[in-house]
Amino acid sequence: MKMKEICTTEVVCCARTLTAGEAARMMRQKHVGDLVVVDDPDGTRVPAGIVTDRDLVIEVMGKGVDPAAVTVAELMRTPVVVAEESEDLSQVIQRMHTHGVRRLPVVDHRGSIAGIVTLDDALRHLVGEANALLGILAKEHDRELRLRR
User: How many domains does one find in the chain?
Assistant: First the structure.
C-alpha cells in the first residue's frame, strides 16, 4: 500500500517562529500531537522539522523553560525524516525503525507536504491486512465443511 493511500492529509503546519506556548495551544485547538514545521506555511510547505507534544513536555515543561521564550525552531527534530507519497508502507516502516521515529511527514514529488503517517496508521493498516488473511482462513474452512458433508 502506498503512502498516498494511508497518510492523513490534514496536516497541521507552523512556521519556525512559533513559540512553544503557541505550539501547545495550536496542538490543543487542532487535536493533534505534532506540528510539521515549514518555512512557508501558506505556500510550498516544505517540511523543515517536526515538533511533538512530547518535545514540549520534555524540553520545555520538564526543564522549567518559559514557553514564550523558546521557538519551535529550537525544539524541532532535524533533519526531518520524510516519506514520499509513492513509497510503499514496508519502506516507510523500515525508515521509522532506522531513525527511531513514530511520525513521518509525507511529501509529494515537489517535496511539499502531502500528509503525515504515524505508527498508529501503519499498525491500523497491518492489522486490517492480518484480519483479511484470517477471514480467508475462515472462509476456506467453511467452504471445506460444506463440500465434505
Answer: 1
